[in-house]
Amino acid sequence: xxxxxxxxxxxxxxxxxxxxxxxxxxxxxxxxxxxLSLPLMVFLTQCVYPGIEPGKRVRISSARIPFAPLLDLKxxxxxxxxxxxxxxxxxxxxGRALEFFHxxxxxxxxxxxxxxxxxxxxxxxxKQARQERxxxxxxxxxxxxxx
Length: 147
Prior knowledge:
This protein is an all-alpha fold. The chain has one domain (4-119). Helix content is 44%, strand content 0%. It has 5 helices and no strands. It starts with 14 loop residues before the first helix and ends with a helix.
């Protein structure tokens, strides 16, 4: 069976997943229409990395919307189906069983389980110069060894 997180957003038919996507749109200002041909995981990642600041993670919260029955629902109370399956996949990707998160609200679970994108490491000019010297030295050593 194909993993739900890799299903194209436009191919999702499960009413609970569609309701979650709608709540996430309202809670994060990320519009799903731009991601219809992409996997669901890309949309979820965009919800926590909306691009306001490159590499800046933003927490999913139901505080911005008046009614969020799914985001405020405890993971242990999720109905069977694709939504629970997605949460199981995310929990496994996080290295835990879904039961570990039963007391968490879905919004808090998503904040924990959606993979982090490592921040870019800034290369300083001195660090870059050192790396270039090392590369030149290794090349020179290789050339010396071949003669």
